[in-house]
Amino acid sequence: MTAANLFDFDLDGLGSFCEQLGEKRFRAAQLFQWIHQRGVTDFAAMSDLAKSLRSKLSDVATVRPLTVVSEQVSSDGTIKWLFDVGGGNAVETVFIPEDDRATLCLSSQAGCAVGCRFCSTGHQGFSRNLSTGEIVAQLWHAEHALRARSMTRGAGSERVISNVVMMGMGEPLQNYSALLPALRVMLDDRGYGLSRRRVTVSTSGMVRLIERLRNDCPVALAVSLHASNDALRDQLVPLNRKHPLEQLLQACRSYLDTAPRDFVTFEYCMLDGVNDSTAQARELIDLVRDDPATRIPCKFNLIPFNPFPESGLRGSPAERVLAFAEVLRDAGIVTTVRKTRGDDIAAACGQLAGEVQDRTRAHERLAGRPVPIRVMPATKRVIAATAVATVEEERP
Ligand code: SAH
Ligand code: SF4
Q1: Ligand 1 centroid vs 55 CA: distance in angstroms?
Q2: Distance from the CA of 385 to the CA of which of 25, 103, 328, 341 falls in 20 to 30 A?
Q3: How many angstroms separate the alpha carbon of residue 268 from the centre of ligand 1?
């Protein structure tokens, strides 16, 4: 029997696991705190658990961190980790420190099946879903690695990560059953204690699963809109052919009934000559504000496109991005333009395309041999993260 990975459980799941071992349910809270708050993976070191439980756990369970393939630190403080998830797959996690918050961008899948035109992860296709444990282990690693560093600088052992965004590789709602317990671990006071407002799920528009998330675990919602009408969105985000804008915006509206925030953030990747005209900005205003069928409280986050060769697309010039933002703002819609972070380590949206696409070199890295990290021209075989971003939020 393979040992259970305790990163796979939310607190409730861990309670059931303890019961299966013939232990009291409340032991799970202690165990959970050791793992997530204190960063301990060795059961022998969990000193307030009975010796008998500790030895039982070592027989049937493990706490399995991910293997770090590389860590790159940008001059602006952004850190990007590449984790080996086995079978030649790797995923990326990015830490983005800012003055008033510290955001971690997590991956939910290796690859992605949605296939958006402008996304390098979409171009590589789908490899596999991450498990809950693999999602949680990204947060666990970042939190405890960073905490250890701040302690060496004398800053104490307070929590480092204040916000999580599910905006790395993959479509999080297409991996719903693994995502849900992972969100619960993030929110649990005995886990990472993040507020619902500070955990954001970004989706390309999985309508039914937005509805499920609304009931199961409402957190902040970001929706990748990218187009002001169905004809264009059908081309850019193929999922739109199944769930057109009216359905998507209806799902967003009903999400707000239970959401921790009273608006949805729309992400909008600015593509030169494709979706960036002022006429399209006005069409967006009509869509989200003036049309009674689709009206919705929202904010816009305009994302500069990070190009990659096979996309055949170019990013909008800066002045067009500003003009587009101006039209939305003039209509009273809060609009931010995403700052690019971690430029020197290729840590921004879509830039990670070149990271590990050459399988030979990926294997060398996964085997632990030092390989200089450099971005290579993208190929169809890339393993890429799509986006690294902070979502603008109201101050708490
Ligand atoms: N699958 C989810 C979350 C990951 S992508 C989603 O699509 O929402 C996170 C964000 O990065 C999305 O808004 C996505 O559209 C955007 N993105 C993808 N590729 C990009 C690129 N090359 N340049 C800029 N943004 C990109
Ligand atoms: Fe998948 Fe999101 Fe990329 Fe679309 S933008 S292909 S949904 S990761």
Answers
A1: 45
A2: 328
A3: 9
